[in-house]
Amino acid sequence: MKVNYIHKLDNMKYISKEKLEKLKEVSKKYKFRSNEYYLSLIDWKDENDPIRKIIIPQYSELDEWGIEDASKEYSYTISKGLQHKYKDTVLLLINDLCGGFCRFCFRKRLFINIGDEVTRDITTDLRYIEENKEITNVLLTGGDPLLLSTKKLNDIIKKLRDIDHIKIIRIGTKLPAFYPFRIIEDETLHSLIQNYSTPEKRLYFMLHINHPNEITHYTIKSIDILLKNGAQVVNQTPILKGINDDVKTLKKLFQKLSYIGVPPYYVFQNRPVMGNKPFALEVEKGYINFLKALEEISGLAKRPKFVMSHETGKIEISGITKDKIMFKYHRANKEENKNKFMIYKRNPRAFWFDDYEYLLEEYKY
């Protein structure tokens, strides 16, 4: 199935001309991109349709809120396209395009400052990975790596597989939701997975499915192909106000993912990034809804951890009482934070870890 990408809001015939003119102001700052398949999932009669909110600009994106790089990724960037935050894991940013531009993207700076952080040549990055033998995991991200040609993707993965200490290669992608035919119809991609996802060294696909409505027949078929060809598949999503933050929707998402063999992996507190105000949900409200969504589902569906991808590491929200909230470092990039457990006074208005001021207790376990 041929993909027709859409970059202009003028093509949105279900939106009034008056509203489109206002939304064009948003797309001048935060670009719009989608395709006919993904837009076909929208119920245009419903102003609050979740797919619509994921992909169609909202005027409130222009409200002053957040910063460009909330997790300060620049602070652990080694060379262009290469981030090394945790000892055993590096990120390779190899593309600055996605199947569509999610309105809540935490890396929307990549689509504003084209080419500033993404690498087209991984030679320098490969040398660094070869020299640092503690690195066992490489995450290919961006942008969406599956928008590269299979030939280009194969070249990158082959070079990584030639480094003996690289045991896991991860590919972050939303294409099973945005455009599953990229996976369904490309048999050379199937062969790539068979070649490089071996019993000793697996390829992992880190999916970004945010709402149950994205899990269509074609999405399921694309995921089945990944699994049958030997890949491991998991899912992660931010919690998003008005899209998946209610208990019923989160529960349904976790369940549907477990039914099709995709373990829910992380639920992220949405980062306080510029333009993200319409999707921002308070930490404690999100965490309580997350806990309620886990109450009556199977253990296979209740595996995700609720975390913040903070500049200092992945901080897991691990408990809440009437007046206290508990955090622990799920991953930390500094030795003094590893295994640290922290108890803070609750702050119902907090959107991020930095909003918590009153530390009551901390210790390492």
Task: Break the fold down into its secondary structure elements and pairings.
Blueprint: E1 5-6, H1 17-29, E2 34-35, H2 36-39, H3 50-55, E3 77-79, E4 82-86, E5 89-93, H4 123-131, E6 137-141, H5 150-161, E7 168-173, H6 175-178, H7 181-184, H8 187-196, E8 203-207, H9 217-228, E9 232-239, H10 247-259, E10 264-269, H11 283-294, E11 305-310, E12 313-320, E13 324-332, E14 340-345, E15 359-364
Parallel strand pairs: 5-6, 6-7, 7-8, 8-9, 9-10, 10-11
Antiparallel strand pairs: 1-2, 3-4, 4-5, 11-12, 12-13, 13-14, 14-15
Helix pairs in contact: 5-8, 10-11
Organism: Oceanotoga teriensis
Cofactor: pyridoxal 5'-phosphate
Binding site for [4Fe-4S] cluster: 98, 102, 105
Cα separation of the termini? 53 Å
Please write the string of helix (H) and strand (E) elements: EHEHHEEEHEHEHHHEHEHEHEEEEE
Shape, principal axes of CA atoms = globular
Q: Briefly note the structural class of the backbone.
A: alpha/beta
Rg, Å, rounded: 20 Å
Strand content: 15-25%
**Mean pLDDT rating:** 95
Strand order of the largest sheet: 3-4-5-6-7-8-9-10-11-12-13-14-15
Mind describing the biggest β-sheet? 13 strands, mixed
- Helix tally equals 11
Helix content: 25-40%
Low-pLDDT ranges:
none
Number of strands: 15
Keywords: 4Fe-4S, Iron, Iron-sulfur, Metal-binding, Pyridoxal phosphate, S-adenosyl-L-methionine
Pfam families: Radical_SAM
Protein name: L-lysine 2,3-aminomutase
Binding site for [4Fe-4S] cluster: 98, 102, 105
Structural notes for this entry:
The protein is built from 11 helices and 15 strands. The radius of gyration is 20 Å and the shape is globular. It is 27% helix and 22% strand. The strands form 2 sheets. It has a 13-stranded mixed beta sheet with strand order 3-4-5-6-7-8-9-10-11-12-13-14-15. It has a two-stranded antiparallel ribbon with strand order 1-2. By secondary structure, the chain is of the alpha/beta class. The mean pLDDT is 95.
